[in-house]
Design a protein that fits this description.
Helix content is about 40%, strand content about 20%. By secondary structure, the protein is α/β, with parallel strands linked by helices. The strands form 2 sheets. The protein has a 7-stranded mixed sheet with strand order 3-2-1-4-5-10-11, sandwiched between helices. The chain has a 4-stranded parallel sheet with strand order 7-8-6-9, with helices on both faces. About 50% of the residues are buried. It binds 6-O-phosphono-beta-D-fructofuranose (F6P). The site of 6-O-phosphono-beta-D-fructofuranose (F6P) has 10 residues, from loops.
Length: about 325
């Protein structure tokens, strides 16, 4: 191969820029030309690209978001649209496409590979919910952002003796809630992977209050329950004073943590090395202590759910 394309797609995640930089500079180092596609798969349909060189990706390793911009392109689910995008890539003489994004982006990459374009996915999503990897770029930064926010909210919760309910992102996965809950010493976390039992939550909170706990933190994953419903339920069924913070997009922004910027570079290297070795249609990921390139078809065998132990432990340690 002599020329690759790179795009970011789906929700932005801290570390995506570091991955763009890593892909571009490592590919150039190996003698390849690099074309950036603007706004994800949409850019393939609108024909928006930019040639990347070492300098275009300078000064971005520490920046949140993605300089290539991103989109959720629903149109791309259609077969003729995918074919059109593949033809456009061929017209640009792009031999392989590196996609930085989450599982929706991986489905898009897979579709392009069915149209004859070699693809490679670098996992970039705050949700940490992708098959074929135990780690997605952005997750660590987000957990730290959530932790910082919870620590601030706790000051008010404890001063006013309140129950702080904090709703966090994560789509259908509870990784963000669980890790932020663990690190902040939350009293309870609600995650989609476990049954949401609000009566039990209320008992748990009331019991803690009885034994002298003046305030509590409850982290709710958006995929488990709506924060407003949790607050309403606690209000109705206990004498406690709950209030809600929905963290929202603050979780997706900001400079990547050391871990995210580092993983971005390592994943980028693996993606390019694999392409150069003739291995493609894979998702790059951390499996155990190794960075692997796993074919899309095998990725479901490498599915890493949240830890049951950690879920139990948060509740044991939280009161
Ligand atoms: O996938 C990342 C994520 O932030 C999820 O946690 C969340 O459910 C979703 O994206 C929100 O999507 P949007 O960018 O459309 O608001």
């Amino acid at each position: 191969i002599s020329k690759i394309g790179v795009l970011t797609s789906g929700g932005d995640a801290p570390g995506m820029n570091a991955a763009i930089r890593g892909v571009t500079r490592y590919a150039i180092e190996k003698g390849l030309a690099v074309e950036g596609i603007i706004r994800g798969y949409e850019g393939l349909l609108r024909h928006e690209t930019i040639t990347l060189d070492r300098r275009t990706v300078g000064g971005i390793i520490h920046r949140g978001g993605t300089i290539l911009r991103t989109a959720r392109c629903l149109e791309f689910m259609e077969k003729d649209v995918q074919k059109e995008a593949a033809d456009y890539l061929r017209s640009l003489e792009i031999d392989a496409l590196v996609v930085i994004g989450g599982d929706g982006s991986m489905r898009g990459a897979q579709a392009l590979s069915h149209c004859g374009i070699p693809t490679m996915v670098i996992p970039g999503t705050i949700d940490n919910d992708m098959m074929g990897t135990q780690y997605t770029i952005g997750f660590d930064t987000t957990v730290n952002t959530v932790l910082e926010s919870i620590n601030k909210i706790r000051d008010t919760a404890s001063s006013h003796e309140r129950v702080a309910v904090i709703e966090v992102m994560g789509r259908n996965a509870g990784f963000i809630a669980l890790y932020a809950g663990m690190a902040s010493g939350a009293e309870a976390v609600l995650v989609p992977e476990h049954e949401v039992n609000l009566p039990r939550l209320c008992e748990h909170l009331a019991e803690s209050h009885r034994i002298g706990k003046l305030s509590s933190i409850v982290v709710v994953a958006e995929g488990a329950a709506k924060g407003t419903d949790v607050v309403d339920y606690i209000k109705e069924h206990t004498y406690l004073e709950p209030n809600l913070t929905v963290l929202g997009y603050v979780q997706r922004g900001g400079a990547p943590s050391a871990l995210d910027a580092t993983m971005a570079g390592l994943y980028a290297q693996k993606a390019i090395d694999s392409l150069l070795a003739g291995t493609y249609n894979c998702v790059i990921g951390l499996i155990g202590r190794r960075i692997a390139a796993t074919p899309y078809s095998e990725a479901p065998h490498f599915h890493f759910p949240i830890s049951d132990n950690m879920y139990q432990l948060v509740h044991m340690l939280g009161r």
